[in-house]
Amino acid sequence: MTVLLTACSTSNTASNSASPSAGTATPAASSAAAASATPAPSKKITITAESFKPDQKEKNDQLDQRINRFKAKNPNVEFKKDDWQYSPLEIGVKMASNSAPTEYTTYATEGKVLVDKKWVADITDSVNAWAHAQDMNDLLSKPFVVNGKTYGVPIDGYVMTITLNKKLFAQKGVPLPPMDWTWDDLLDAARKINDPAKGIAGFIPMGKGPEAGWNWTNFLYAAGGDVQKLDNGKVVATFNSDAGLKALEFYKKLKDENLIPQNWALGYGDALSAFAQGRGAMVMCGSGNAADTAINEGGISKDDLVVYPIPSMTKGGKHTGVLGGNYRVINPKADKETQQMAFKWITDEYFTDEFLTSTQKEIEDRKAKNRVYIPQPINYWKDSSDFGKKYSDLLAKYDNVFKYDPQLLSLWDGKPEAQYEAQKYYAEMANVIQKVFTTKNVDLKKTLEDTSNKVQSEVFDKVKIE
């Protein structure tokens, strides 16, 4: 849960191996196409690569193995390691002191500010020369494509979704809503499924802890709102808006109509467990996490679950949910030749058959244990690419793989989490949501305004952007 709720980090599902990054255990050889993207350098090149803290021995061992594989093919490259982990409050100091590594991992939120501050290299030429440039997932790549130029390569990611228990719908004789659904469609379905006497809620929102604010932000985004903006180097709260008010009014309807669990104070694990136990028809979560818990822990059949995008506020609107993910970027202070080699290092083990082999092994291991493999619905590659087709063909061979409706991927839209102090914002919004769920005649507009003022003065005003 901590990993999932950290600003812009990826959801922690059973399929995390589906996105190789520095230090993952995925065995892979280099892509021939990636190797051809960078000409043979004329000098010795040193790359300072992002590593892990000393106590993470296994991850560092895996990184060493990957370095050795790369050096075997590129003997002119030397590596140094740096265990600094990206922080939006530290990157300015690292760049000013020229101590940032050659390449590092950052979050989906960081694209524009890193570009604006010139703290990340323009890798457009390297990407364009890469044979797999057209195979990358456009939605996942979006946060690091700024003004038509590319500044980062996605590792993995998630977009928030809502998982429905089809069996509860069938038992009530209620048809599933259209996948291109709206807030009204969600409310209508929740009303028809809701059965408080049997302890079954129409919809399960997270109501406790920062995850409560994280859940609610999806409706803020779907209404066209945002959390914050940068104004002359200052972080300014923007969630006190018409969109924010509409999102709160939607939550108030859920409570006023008794469509949520009687014990609504549910954290991340609590909400997923309630759904897995059949105590709610719908739950919101990152990508396939809710399905994983329901199937592999709750014993619900994979055929009784379906994953929907966040509903649009009105018909024809965008299905915008919170997008999180990890991205590899390159230090712009490195010389051009080093930047090109760093790109080759970053992408060296993408699009490999060895990765498919490791995925197959995981699926078969799960099958032997009578468990279901839950793939991520979004990966760094396009499903329509040759590699994507190979991956899809592999999944299709097994009956213990959860499948997503193709409409999901055509409808959903992702918007990155707030860049600065997202967790503190989420925690304050959790207090608002709890007030909405407990106070009969709460003044939504004043509550939102008061919270915005508090977050501004106590949190955002204290953010120092170097």
Question: Can you walk me through this structure?
Answer:
Residues 8-62 are annotated as: Disordered. InterPro entries: Bact_solute-bd_prot1 (IPR050490), SBP (IPR006059). Residues 8-42 have a biased composition (Low complexity). The protein is an alpha+beta fold and 466 residues long. It has two domains: 19-157 and 325-370, D-Maltodextrin-Binding Protein, domain 2 (3-Layer(aba) Sandwich); 159-321 and 413-462, Periplasmic binding protein-like II (D-Maltodextrin-Binding Protein, domain 2, 3-Layer(aba) Sandwich), CATH 3.40.190.10. Helix content is 40%, strand content 15%. The chain contains 19 helices and twelve strands. The strands form four sheets. Strands 3, 6, 9, 10, 11 and 12 form a six-stranded mixed beta sheet that branches. It has a two-stranded parallel ribbon with strand order 1-2. The protein has a two-stranded antiparallel sheet with strand order 4-5. A hairpin with a 2-residue loop joins β7 and β8 (234-237). α10 packs across α18 (422-438), α12 (268-276) packs across α13 (289-296) and α18 packs antiparallel against α19 (444-458). The longest helix has 17 residues, at 57-73. The radius of gyration is 23 Å and the shape is globular.
